[in-house]
């Protein structure tokens, strides 16, 4: 049985899958299975995944679209053979030592662990998250792409919940909080282990289905003997980025929500969406998806 189950939730954006999958297959830690879970995909995603001869790569497709990664992630946890679960966004990339670093932390006693992320925002120099003095508190956001957890821990707290069931917290924030509440807050591994290209900052990506950024970043990762060291050198943290990082970290309160909406160029007259379900609908429309 594999030690780690990697879950990649996806929906009708097949052109990005070869890059995220390639970043998994280049991991220094190799005892894993990769479950690519379609959220009711109707495009060529199944064919893309079927093209991999590696027996660790598997495809499953939900019978209908849920509109959020909570459903594919729960399906992945249900199907997982590994006792550690790690998530990779279908449009994100891992550096080669991502799994190695997080499994080492879990072997050291953590039941939830995450690395640092290189955020790639359109038109801006990439920047690291979190900031050096950041400390996790329940209700703060940690990108799923950066995180791994004990499978049984997630099952014991009820797994992922739908946006309509999590109030003002997004489903990932809600799950991290519930795991922390029973005494297992995420442990930060102070290593840069992933590259995140947030779809929430890229208009109409599900309509246009670009993949040039993923291709460029995968080439950059593959070109370096140690991409972590090189990216640390090129994209050293700047104090001026602290406010931006705080916006990405905090999900509670109207000020934080309005800030996040401003980042994606949206204007909601009168008030910002208050619930996770309202934010889900707003984000889907911005990314080119409609109910």
What CATH architecture would you give? Alpha-Beta Complex
Category from helices, strands and their pairing: alpha/beta
Secondary-structure element order, as H and E?
Answer: EHEHEHEEHEEEHHEHHHHHH
Q: How large is the radius of gyration?
A: 18 Å
CATH topology: Spore Coat Polysaccharide Biosynthesis Protein SpsA, Chain A
Overall description:
The protein has 291 residues and is an alpha/beta fold. It has helices spanning 17-25, 45-50, 70-79, 98-107, 151-156, 171-181, 205-208, 212-223, 227-234, 242-249, 254-263, 276-286; strands spanning 4-10, 32-38, 57-61, 84-87, 93-94, 112-119, 127-129, 147-150, 187-196. It starts with a strand and ends in a 5-residue tail after the last helix.
Short structural summary:
The chain is 36% helix and 17% strand. It is an alpha/beta fold. It has a single domain, classed as Spore Coat Polysaccharide Biosynthesis Protein SpsA, Chain A.
List keywords for this structure.
globular; 9 strands; 291 residues; 9-stranded mixed β-sheet; alpha/beta; Spore Coat Polysaccharide Biosynthesis Protein SpsA, Chain A
Topology overview:
Blueprint (H helix, E strand, L loop, with lengths): L3 E7 L6 H9 L6 E7 L6 H6 L6 E5 L8 H10 L4 E4 L5 E2 L3 H10 L4 E8 L7 E3 L17 E4 H6 L14 H11 L5 E10 L8 H4 L3 H12 L3 H8 L7 H8 L4 H10 L12 H11 L5
Parallel strand pairs: 1-2, 1-4, 2-3, 6-9
Antiparallel strand pairs: 4-8, 5-9, 6-7, 6-8
């Amino acid at each position: 049985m594999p030690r780690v189950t990697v879950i990649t939730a996806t929906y009708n954006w097949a052109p990005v899958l070869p890059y995220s999958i390639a970043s998994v297959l280049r991991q220094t830690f190799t005892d894993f299975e990769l479950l690519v879970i379609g959220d009711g995909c109707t495009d060529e995603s199944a064919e893309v995944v079927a093209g991999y001869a590696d027996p660790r790569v598997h495809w499953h497709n939900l019978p209908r679209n849920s509109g959020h990664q909570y459903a594919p992630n729960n399906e992945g946890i249900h199907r997982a053979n590994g006792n550690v679960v790690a998530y990779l966004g279908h449009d994100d990339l891992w550096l080669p030592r991502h799994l190695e670093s997080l499994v080492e932390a879990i072997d050291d006693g953590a039941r939830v662990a995450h690395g640092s992320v290189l955020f790639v925002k359109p038109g801006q120099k990439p920047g690291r998250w979190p900031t050096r003095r950041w400390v996790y508190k329940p209700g703060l956001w940690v990108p799923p792409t950066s995180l791994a957890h004990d499978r049984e821990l997630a099952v014991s707290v009820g797994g992922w919940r739908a946006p309509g069931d999590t109030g003002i917290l997004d489903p990932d924030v809600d799950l991290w909080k519930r795991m922390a509440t029973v005494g297992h807050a995420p442990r930060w591994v102070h290593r840069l282990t992933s590259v995140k290209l947030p779809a929430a900052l890229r208009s109409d990506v599900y309509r246009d289905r670009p993949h040039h950024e993923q291709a460029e970043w995968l080439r950059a990762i593959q070109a370096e003997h140690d991409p972590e060291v090189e990216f640390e050198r090129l994209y050293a943290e700047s104090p001026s980025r602290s406010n931006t990082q705080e916006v990405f970290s905090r999900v509670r309160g109207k000020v934080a929500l309005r800030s996040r909406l401003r980042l994606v160029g949206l204007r909601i007259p009168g008030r910002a969406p208050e619930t996770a379900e309202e934010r889900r609908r707003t984000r889907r429309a911005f990314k080119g998806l409609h109910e």
